[in-house]
Amino acid sequence: MYTTTSTQATRKRGATQFQGCLASLTLVLAMNTHACSTGQHSGPDDSEADADDTVQPVSETPTYYKDVHPILQTRCAGCHHKGGIGPLSFDDDPANARAVAPLIASTTAERKMPPFLPGELTPPLRGEARLSDQEIATLRAWAEADAPLGDPADQSPIAPTSAFPLNEPELEFDIGTDYTPDPELSDDYHCFATPLAVSAPRVLIGFRVIPGSPRVVHHVSVGLLSADDAQAISDLDARTPDRAGWPCFGNLIPVDSGIRPAGGIGTWVPGVDGQLLYPGTGKPIPSDVIAVIQVHYNTLNGPDQDRTRVQVFFAPQETQAQLLPLGSTGVAAADLSIPADRQETTVTGVRMVGQLPPDNPQTTLARMVPAGDRWAVGVYAHGHLLMTRFRLTLNAGAPDAQILLDIPRWDFHWQGNWLYQTPIRLRPTDRLTVQCTYDNSPEYRAQVGLPAASTVVTWGEGTTDEMCIGNVALVSEEPRQ
Length: 481
Description:
This protein is α+β, with helices and mostly antiparallel strands. It is about 10% helix and about 30% strand. Strands 1, 3, 5, 6, 7 and 10 form a six-stranded antiparallel beta sheet that branches. Strands 2, 4, 8, 9, 11 and 12 form a six-stranded mixed beta sheet that branches. Helix 2 (about 65-75) packs across helix 5 (about 135-145).
């Protein structure tokens, strides 16, 4: 089996460390994922919200049927349903929730669940995935009252969520095999390549991912590669003759493979029916491309066999030219060196929005931004297991400084990218500053599943390496809502 440090997956660490989502590195710069939302703070405020301090008291003892059931159904059941990736179902028997009421209260108060990384200093994002202070207070009061069920007659019907507005996909493909995750790994990150039947350039406006086994599929990213590299892709696949595809912990493809990215489709997480791009924008999809599908399998529910499918929705050919094509730019702190045994190390990277990145494979992940103002419609962050905090700032230190993304408590397994509610104007002379903080102490290394060794950590795509990247998705003019 092909197992260089760039493709090692996380070994067994126990059910309490249930793993989450991983956005790919090289190709995700051309992607969009599920959108979340939070509060807006436009200035360079360095404060961090303490979730416990924001919880407000509840005047009346909550009950499951009246107060808790609506929260669990609207906020949690997307993952925690029968046959889903969540380790416990909240959609059938109230006894399941009652049995773990203290855990529900503690993980929501700490804002570990629902898994939502952006902090309150981040500009407003689309698709709220954060519990309100009142919902957190309700769950805590319910647990402290010994989780009473109450009267079933108090349970109100839950309004269905809005259906995905796109119906018939023009393109559908799958991973090309019936794959069983490696049972020796708690998290098996695996990539599969399949040619796409796209005969002419099109513009993507949305996509869906249908996991073959929702019990084990915890994240899917779909990138595009040039068909000219078909032989190199086949050679990469052949490195693991005992398994279809190849292991891919950080990148969909090794950065030294010479295989050329050709765009991307997007990233999916459980609980999401489908993904729509930012209104008025589209993602150009070239012809003669090969899709590479990265699937994050979590085997805590067992190594079920899977055959995940992807559905793609294009803009009508007669109107696709009216959509603003999505591009991207970003900044990396590629020269990082994290000292051994140190609990806190912060690295910084800076570059101008319109600056051509240096000719270095570690810093040319972002596309060059042509001259002229641009509008940021989304934001993305990437790091590995030792990262603890992340921040991307526009014009740091200036009077008009604006935080573009703040993650006060980084979690490698729940990273992704998000869409802004309102586009943010960027000028070519604006500066992007990325700051990443790491904990390289033996104790923290053991906590996140790495060897508790005393070692210096540098840039790389393996599990024991680190990265620091901030990226924004851009269009050439302000999109019409």
